[in-house]
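chain below, 212 aa
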Amino acid sequence: MKKLIIIGVVAVVGLGVVGGAGFLGYKMHSELARYKALGSYASMQKFSRENFDLNKQNKAVMAQMDEIQRELIIYRKNFFLEAEKRSARKIATSVAAFQQLSGPYVLTAAATQEQLELCQDTQALMQLEIKLFQTNDPEAMARQEKVCGTYIAQKLIPLFKYQMLRNRVNLSGSMGHLKADAERKFDNARQLLKKWEIPVERELESYTRFDR
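prediction:
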């Protein structure tokens, strides 16, 4: 009886060992099959290198996008600060442009400055594009040059000159007592332009005298 029990125990243990070995063998076979499905060691190395390169490129692209965002935020901030200043200046100079005698003087100086600033704006935009993308559009460059090649002063100063010649004639003789008032208006106009940092071309200024 005892022998039968011992034999039974040994048999059970043997079956457990065989079953465990079989399960372990099955598991190892499954793992091996999974690794084989992934490919050879060389192909895995290639995949690892490609994945590393893609991650590196992705980081570079993200860094470039962050730089573009920073530059655009700076550009936008400066743009709006300048736009607010120009808006307030436009109101002041537009009102002054309705002033008798000195109005065209303010109008000409302000328009000349605005045209210059428009040229500077186009240049700044092209420089930003070059900085961010290391390239620029030839058509856009041609348009920028066209804007900067516009000289509004050449159109306005002759008109102002003609008007001032007429004013000098009108303020001569019996109307001479109005010269002081006319000169005061031009002094006020100069102060206004100085306040808003608007330069006046020498030729334009030369036609504001009534003693010639």
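The first helix runs from residue 2 to 38. The chain has a mean pLDDT of 81.
thats it, cya
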